[in-house]
Specification:
Layout lengths: L1 H10 L3 H22 L31 H6 L57 E2 L19 E2 L13 H33 L19 H14 L2 E3 L18 H12 L13 E3 L4 H7 L9 H17 L2 H5 L4 E4 L5 H5 L3 H5 L2 E3 L25 E6 L5 H10 L6 E4 L8 H6 L1 E7 L7 H8 L3 E5 L18 E3 L7 H6 L3 H14 L14 H14 L8
Parallel strand pairs: 3-4, 4-5, 5-6, 7-8, 7-9, 9-10, 10-11
Antiparallel strand pairs: 1-2
Helix pairs in contact: 4-5
Length: 546
């Protein structure tokens, strides 16, 4: 009985004590919720540091939201479409041992072309990008990119702080990735600032070449951007895949630049990195030209085998590395030298919508080198007003041949040249070289004209010439729409001798940007292609926000 009384006495507590005991666990739970909850930046935006990256004068009325680099370099920047921001999951070749934790992406944003020049105005905050929910704990598949392997939620507070299945192991891994990514983004911010300052500054010194003149949209900004690229730009080349379709390409045809670029970027020590955590962009090293040769069934008109090859490759790299899913392909690039490059990209929705598709100039290297192709006489030794020779390839050439084939001594247009007449000699004897687009816009005649000192005449509707983010094509070429083909002679004859001489000299000055060298030389076509990729990466802001 005494024991029973003592036990009851031990369990008896006053009402105030009961209240205290009740409050202690509640306070502890509240503290845990505060630690685990998603965090905002001081301004309330998830990625407030990139407010200017996803604003544009087309989306907002205020001209102060113009992307800075676009006004400085006229970069054809990209627009973020609703639903394209999101996250995925993939393994990692550099992560911790199994299981590989998933990564989050918040605010993978692109911008559309700006129309305002007020690029130095203050940068007000903009609406933040969509926050991406963490997908199920399964490896993302490229074949499901347009379906339900990820979801987008407008409520930015729904991003979880960590995945309970991995706990603090994942937290540490994500923090390391954040540190690497944030370091890369900080370097890009410094590059943007430097380019902004160079726009209105003085030319910088350079031992090899200083861009200057009306051939450039902004010579100082281009020069500073190029130097920044040399200083920090890094590319990771996926090693998966075997030749002849992967890590290989033609080197002696009109698609020679595809094989040339693949080879040069893979042996390059300045820009290529073996550590993907150092990379600003990721190269998908397949050749569309080689797919046409080895995968496509001739005359079948079936793109299915090419598309399945692309889908399978994206599946492999998305499952093995985290980087495709981190950005949904926004920091990945593929080559599209062949006419079917855009068609191949349709296979994977995010590849087509998000990724960088490099449509570089076609260079017809019969011997694999430019020997014998460079150079031409002065304007006084060019007796032919305009020249074109080529078969039917696309609707525009049909119109050109219909109006001008063998009909004028000054405008020499031929489907086939007479026996013994040299194609390149005709270009060197001509003031203007007619460059109509084929089924796609690319044509090797553009570079052939520049090589021979012939002013290019670009015939196309809505054609974006090579490197137009840097070069001012109107200063050294003539643009003619399809409707103006019947008036071609009148248009060219109306250009004064003085103006033509200026244009022809500018063609000679920009030629360095189209020359192919092995090994590559600064400012040549290889480096200009890299610079185009670099510019597009400058206009994409990535953030793994915790």
């Amino acid at each position: 009985m005494d024991c029973e009384k003592k036990l009851r006495a031990c369990w008896f507590v006053s009402p105030s004590t009961k209240l205290l005991l009740l409050m202690v666990p509640l306070v502890a739970v509240a503290g845990l919720v505060a630690v685990a909850a998603p965090r905002k930046s001081p301004a309330g935006d998830l990625v407030s540091a990139y407010s200017w990256l996803w604003s544009s004068s087309r989306s907002y009325s205020s001209p102060t939201r113009t992307p800075i680099l676009d006004a400085a370099l006229q970069i054809p920047v990209l627009h973020a479409e609703a639903g394209d921001g999101g996250s995925g999951r993939g393994g990692s070749a550099v992560g911790p041992p199994a299981p590989d934790p998933p990564l989050m992406v918040v605010g993978v944003q692109k911008m559309e072309r700006a129309v305002s020049d007020d690029s130095l105005a203050p940068e007000p905050s903009a609406s933040p990008p969509l926050a991406a929910e963490r997908p199920p704990n399964k490896t993302s598949s490229a074949t499901k990119e347009g379906t339900s392997d990820f979801s987008v939620n407008v409520a930015r507070n729904n991003v979880p702080a960590f995945n309970e299945s991995y706990g603090f192991v994942e937290k540490a891994w994500q923090k390391r990735v954040d540190t690497d990514l944030e370091r890369l983004e900080a370097g890009l911010r410094r590059a943007r600032s430097g380019i902004r300052e160079a726009k209105s500054g003085n030319p910088m010194e350079d031992p090899d070449y200083v861009p200057v003149g009306p051939m450039y949209r902004n010579a100082n900004a281009f020069h500073r951007s190029y130097l920044e690229m040399e200083k920090q730009f890094k590319i990771f080349v996926y090693k998966e895949g075997d030749p002849p379709v992967f890590h290989n390409g033609p080197c002696k045809s009109i698609y020679a630049m595809e094989g040339n670029f693949i080879h040069m970027v893979e042996i390059n020590k300045r820009f290529r990195t073996e550590d993907p955590r150092e990379a600003h962009v990721f190269f998908l090293p397949f050749s569309v030209a080689m797919m046409v040769q080895f995968v496509y069934v001739r005359d079948s008109h079936d793109f299915g085998p090419i598309k399945r090859t692309v889908i399978d490759y994206i599946d492999v790299v998305a499952g093995k590395y985290p980087y495709w899913n981190r950005s949904l392909g926004a920091d990945h690039f593929m080559l599209a030298c062949h006419d079917w490059g855009p068609e191949a990209s349709f296979a994977v929705p995010h590849l087509h919508r998000n990724s960088i598709r490099v449509s570089f100039p076609e260079v017809n290297l019969h011997t694999g080198a430019i020997g014998g192709l460079i150079g031409g006489p002065s304007p006084s030794h060019r007796s032919i007003l305009a020249f074109f020779a080529g078969g039917l390839h696309g609707p525009m050439r049909h119109i050109l041949l219909q109006h001008w084939e063998n009909k004028d001594e000054d405008v020499k247009v031929h489907r086939y040249l007479p026996r013994g007449v040299s194609y390149y000699d005709m270009m060197r004897r001509s003031k203007f070289c007619i460059c109509p687009s084929g089924y796609e816009v690319a044509s090797p005649r553009v570079v052939e004209a520049i090589y021979t000192g012939c002013v290019p005449v670009l015939i196309s509707d809505h054609y974006v010439p090579p490197f137009s983010d840097v070069l001012n094509w109107r200063s050294f070429s003539v643009e003619v729409t399809v409707r103006e083909i019947p008036n071609l002679k009148t248009i060219l004859a109306s250009i004064s001798s003085r103006q033509y001489i200026r244009m022809q000299r500018r063609v000679a000055q920009v030629r360095r940007h189209f020359e192919v060298h092995s090994p590559p030389k600064r400012y040549d076509v290889f480096h200009m292609i890299l610079h185009s990729v670099w510019l597009r990466r400058l206009n994409v802001g990535l953030s793994d926000n915790q």
